[in-house]
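[09:14] KT: can someone run the structure on this one? pasting the chain below
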Amino acid sequence: MTHASELALQNLRDLSTLEWVVIPLLAVVFYIYVREIKAARSSGNWDAVYAGLTLFGMDFINETWNGWVLHFTQRSACWTVPGETALRTMVGWNIEIMFMFAISGIIYCHTLSKDPAEKILGIPNRWFWAIGYAAFCVFVECALNKGGLLVWEYPWWNRSFEGIWLIFFFGYFHFYAAAILVLSLRSHRARIAFVACLYLTASIANIICLGFLGWVY
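[09:31] RB: done, structure tokens below
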């Protein structure tokens, strides 16, 4: 395994690394969701809640297959976060990243126009902002990689022209595409089913890894 992989496996899901900063950050995330749910119960518009849950669910799936890459290669995941953290939950995921993605879908939803058909530069606004936010996420990821906080190992997942496009589409853009899909569904039942499938997929994959195969990534 790479040195970064070995570091990322150290203190994995070790609660002794927890820091007090987690408590106010958790409270902020709870506050945001409580406010959104309260507003949704009054207006009947649950878009922000669904978008928030969808984006986080997609990230959960992403981090799951990233851990599988480490297991099958026994070298490295596509990305690892070996640096200091209040809690490392997977080799490429930590509590700080989780808090950020927990509210990213809500941020995205509140950026959208009330009219789904409205266009920006000739692009439907939902897709325009999906592209914009995904591109911004790639920029942040490149900065984190440059600073050594987010480590890439493979030549096809790097800051090259080809690598950037791969990170754009398989790292972030599909998160927002999933949010657009759930927002386009008409019924609450369909939306709930879609979101539930995301979490069931990731949860079952992790239960298989941890409970039956003994993987820890």
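[09:33] KT: thanks! The longest strand covers residues 88-90.
[09:34] RB: yep, looked fine to me
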